[in-house]
Amino acid sequence: SDQAKSVIENDIQLRDDVIFIMLYPFIDKELMKQYGESKQIECGKIIKIERLPVGTYLFNVTVQAIMFEGAHSPPNDLVTITFSNEKTLDWHVIDFKRIRLKSNEIPRCD
Q: Quick one: which of 4, 12, 55, 58 has the most CB atoms within 10 Å?
């Protein structure tokens, strides 16, 4: 049913939000490293979770967010960061990408 589907979607969204918040200190640390200062972000979401290898508690988790300056003003970068806990117990960055968005390309947050 549609209701059951929306309950499941809400549950997944809730879990994604929890994962994002747990990763936030690591996201903040990586943005400090890349930009030389702490950055404000919005529209944060989990875009991929990959278990490696199956049966372990080792994962790659990819997050995406839009970075902004001041009162949600440009420059706006779409930032994609992949974290892994494979080699260390803590989360570390294995991939970082940024795309500078034009003002008409900035998506609305889901």
A: 58
Please state, in angstroms and rounded to a whole number, the distance separating the CA atoms of residues 49 and 62: 6
How many residues make up the chain in this entry?
110
Rg of the chain in Å (alpha carbons): 15
- Which residues lie closer than 8 Å to 40 by C-beta, 6 or more apart? 67, 68, 69
Which residues fall within 8 angstroms of residue 42, CB to CB, at 6 or more apart? 65, 66, 68, 72, 109
Is the torsion defined by CA of 7, 12, 14, 15 positive or negative?
positive
What is the pTM assigned to this prediction? 0.89
3-class DSSP string for the chain: CHHHHHHHHHHHHHHHHHHHHHHHHHHHHHHHHHHCCCCEEEEEEEEEEEECCCCCCCEEEEEEEEEEECCCEEEEEEEEEEEECCCCCCCEEEEEEEEEECHHHCCCCC
